Amino acid sequence: MLRLLIKLNLYLSSVGVAIMATLIAWIVFMRFFAGVTPHWAEELPQFLLIWVAMTGAVWCSKNNSHLSAGILALWLKDQKITQFLHRVVDVLIIAAMVLLTKSGWDLTLLTMNQHTPAMQWPVGLLYLSVPVSCTFIGLVHIATLCASWRSSHE
């Protein structure tokens, strides 16, 4: 089930990037060739950028493709210590994602009655990207932790 959610997440991020690129091309065309800028020209790409970045973080977390220095692997040669530290990192990330999910949800509820200037969308929709993505990242790390736990006990 988690694999399906991550694939859906990646698909939605990809579609979001494609829509954002199309929108920006349309805005540039309208601004320079038609001399008119749509009223939503700044807000909609910002919404998409934030949602794409937050949902893309789930895929990066699943594939360990986020930024890391990789120095720990050079220092530690013992595989057991390395596995232990990876588990500690997973637990810390899960704890951080629980806190961020709760805080993001509170902020979403707090700002749901405020509206954006141009499109009149609830600002809470923008902040909703935080609890959604943090929940998925937490689930990814729970699955990673469970898988590493199972592999060490076999």
Automatic annotation (TrEMBL):
The entry's keywords: Cell inner membrane, Cell membrane, Membrane, Transmembrane, Transmembrane helix, Transport
Membrane topology summary: Multi-pass membrane protein
Tripartite ATP-independent periplasmic transporters DctQ component domain ranges (all copies): 20-150
Lipid metabolism in keyword set: no
Subcellular location: Cell inner membrane
A GO CC annotation given for this chain: plasma membrane
UniProt KW Phosphoprotein keyword: no
Biological processes per GO annotation: C4-dicarboxylate transport
Short name of one Pfam family: DctQ
Family: Belongs to the TRAP transporter small permease family.
Function: Part of the tripartite ATP-independent periplasmic (TRAP) transport system.
Subunit details: The complex comprises the extracytoplasmic solute receptor protein and the two transmembrane proteins.
Protein name: TRAP transporter small permease protein
Species assigned in the record: Marinomonas pollencensis
